[in-house]
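Page 37, top half.
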Amino acid sequence: MKVLDIGCGSNKTPGAVGIDARPGPNVDIVWDLDQRPWPFSGDEFEAAVCRHVLEHLQDVVGTMAEIYRICRPGSLVLIQVPHFSNAYAFGDPTHRHFFSSRSMDRFIQDSSYHFRDQCRLTLVRKRLSFAGPGRYLIAPWANRMLNWFERHLAFILPGQDLTFLLRVDK
């Protein structure tokens, strides 16, 4: 299985092709991810991993369209970003975007917010993680009612990371 680890840094997914803006021991391709097209042909990868990268890039919509372009039909795409209630989301001056549980709706086919001409993805799973004891007490409850939780409790009981697992439908 050919996997792309986008913005891999030093924590590249084992066996994946790693692309990052900075050279490093695990980086196979040095590339500015804000420059498109990326140096891959269409439908090249069977899976993509994008952990803590999307919040740093200029154009989320363009980046998601590029991920869609390089992934084969049926590919799985793992996106992990800091939740907007995470203190580090706003504490890192290199973060350009902030994410909620609805941030990927624009790319998901069954959503009323679907951006139809860029990509067609299916949501497989989304999870909000918590730090400390909250990961055991709050996470199961909050993930059952994410929209309500974000509107009413997110800044009282802040989340940590959002993880989206998406499937490419072409």
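Page 37, bottom half:
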Amino acid sequence: MATEFKLPELGENIEAGDITNLLVSVGDSVVAGQSVFEIEAGKATMEIPSPLTGTVSALHVAQGDSASVGQLVMELTVDDLQLADSAPEPVVEESAPVVEDAPALVVEKKSVPVPAPEPIAPIENHQSLIDNSGATKALSVSAAPAVRRLARELGVDIHRVPPTGPAGYITADDVKIFAKESLEGAPSTGTTRVEKMSAIRKATMKHMSHCWATIPHVTQHDTADITQLEELRKRFAPKAEAVGAKLTMTAMIIKVIASALKVHPKFNCTIDPEKTEIIYKDFYNIGIAMDTPKGLLVPVIADGDKKNMVELAQELGALAAKARNGKLTAADLKGGTFTFTNLGGIGGSFFTPIVNSPEVAILGTGRAYWEPGIEDGQKHFRLPLSLSYDHRIIDGADGARFLKWIVDAMEEPLLLSLEG
């Protein structure tokens, strides 16, 4: 008898995902608990198991498709006796990543499949909103700074915008209307390419917009002399290599951060604006922002304060490998209390990292560089630091004290044992 399987619940507030890998084909035999496809949703990759034993009679999704919760994804032919029994709990293979609350496929009786809706043709974007026809007026215009900035962002020549405000002032609506009319009337002068956002990019877009819109950010900068820390890293790197790990500066900084959070608990909390309460965390889980082929991912190292640098290096390497291979699970991405991001491998110095809500702070590092010392004339290895925090709970003096502790611990690692 043919049975239908619809995409089950994937997690809280996750309504859809992208099929990244089909593990079966039509005609294949499957057993209960066998993974039939992989789906990427909410920045995590999970395997969906079959709850029944049977033969794949139809596949309604292909690799690269997006699928919504409740959508028909596959049909199986199973014997009537098995279908009459209650469906067994799915069994996850030992080699598959374990996901908390692993989803079970929904079993329904055969129904007439609903044709997929016709795809909507993408709307082509014009190359520019700037109207280059005619000479630019050399006359001054009356417009507020915010309106001028809006015009620059939209690529509009503000001198060409007809004013409708009092005393000939150009309003924001004037700029928007002019931009819209220019777009509708502009000829297409080049080709465009439309690319569908991946599940990770959509999740990043939504989360970063929320973080920036709800958290009043402040960013403070400093540099740390990590000459001694780098010497220690090189000296003890063989100990990490002996257990198959690589002792990186990132692993050492994670330990510094975890220690700093114990001394400065305000940076390891969340806030509840509705109840006007501060929730302090007595555990120190450090999220590590990673640049992967699929986009930005932030896996979490739990209990960073309880692990030594070699253990942190081991776990960091394992998470990096899972991130590269698209094998991070939802559990790998949960529970962070503070985030660290390192752009030094790419380049640059100072920047403005965005706080990873509901956390209240994030530390970023740029590329370390050698610089001659003013007093001793010796070369010193310096690391640019950028600390962003939520100004609703952290004041500038708090930020300065926290960042100074970080700098002091990097320059004198014994501080980790004395105070961390």
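Margin note: The radius of gyration is 27 Å.
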